[in-house]
Amino acid sequence: MRKRTEAQTSNNEPVNADRKDPVQRLPSQAKAEGRVSYRSVLTTIGKCLLVIIFIPPFLNYASLQREGQVLLPKDGQMVDVGLGQKMHLLCKGKGQPVVVLDAPTGMSSDVWLHVQESVASLTMVCTYDRMGLGFSKRQMQNETTGTEKVWGLSTTGRMVDDLHRLLQAAGIAKPFILVGSELGALNGRFFTHIHDVQVSDLVLIDPIPEDVFEDDQWKEYWWGKLVPSLQVRQFSAATGLSRLLIILGVMEPAVTGENVSEDVIQRQKYLLSNPAHQSSAVDEHYFLNESAAQVRDITTFKPLSSRTAVSVITGDSFDQEIPEHLNQMVARLQKKFLEESYPSANHIHIKGADRRMIYKKPSAISQHLRKLVHQRQAKQQSE
């Protein structure tokens, strides 16, 4: 009996041991399951991040390739300016004198939409995209015109050389009326002082005074706020975020309204999503002080010919979105440099306007340009 009990006891020991094992393994199993669950969460998060990081830029790039061909203006032309480079030129209307429009800093030729349409009923009006902006692709690093030995990339000297080659290649009749806004005004001044025989009238819209970058408060605003905000926009375009923001209605084109065609709106959205365009816009703003210095040097070296008439168009402020003390400083410097450089210039003031006047209040600009065209045409007929 005792042996049977002992046998039963000995036989039961493994059974009891087996019964205790599951209880003993519960903590280790829980830890293992926790590790598996944690790893799966990390894996899922990693996959989501990969999708967010890589898919939008890829889709944006694919869309840009298609849009770059579809959205090219039908009336525009890609002009070969040498070295395999082509610049986008859009001319409307017929007749002389030709009016050439140069856009503000970092903007494409679409901002001249209303002005071009209005003046084209009288004569030929041409807009163009500077290298790197719009549909004019940036010059490659290994291609040269020789000007980079003197003028840096994205500065007025290089832009004027590009413009001169463009107008020559396109066969634009001379002399023409040259109109520029902001950076376009710097380019216009530089071009006219060098090629004064080719320009009958120079029109400066919100010209940037050369001395503005000597002011510490302006430099803090320009490089401390404006340029970084443009760099964020460039990054947003590169990551595909801009396209998403446009779809959601958070980011909108600058030129809108009932009279703006769907093609123009889509082109602006395309450029907002285009990192190459945004990169060039950043560069033009970043090197604007260098452009201003180049204009100061060239105007000192070669004064403007008396044959060229100069008009200046300004608004109530340079930019309604910047602090008032900066607007007052710009206005003071504008007045100083105009009195010194172009004392006989015809000054037109547009009430309630700022640097966005070329697409916010285009009628006043169009009216002045039409007046200049009529005057030149009457003079040509009398001769």
TrEMBL record:
InterPro entries: AB_hydrolase_1, AB_hydrolase_fold. The lineage of its organism: Eukaryota, Metazoa, Chordata, Craniata, Vertebrata. It comes from Champsocephalus esox. It comes from the Eukaryota. Residues 1-29 are annotated as: Disordered. Residues 105-223 form the AB hydrolase-1 domain. The keyword ATP-binding does not apply. Keywords: Membrane, Transmembrane, Transmembrane helix. The chain crosses the membrane at residues 41-59. This is AB hydrolase-1 domain-containing protein. The keyword Transmembrane applies.
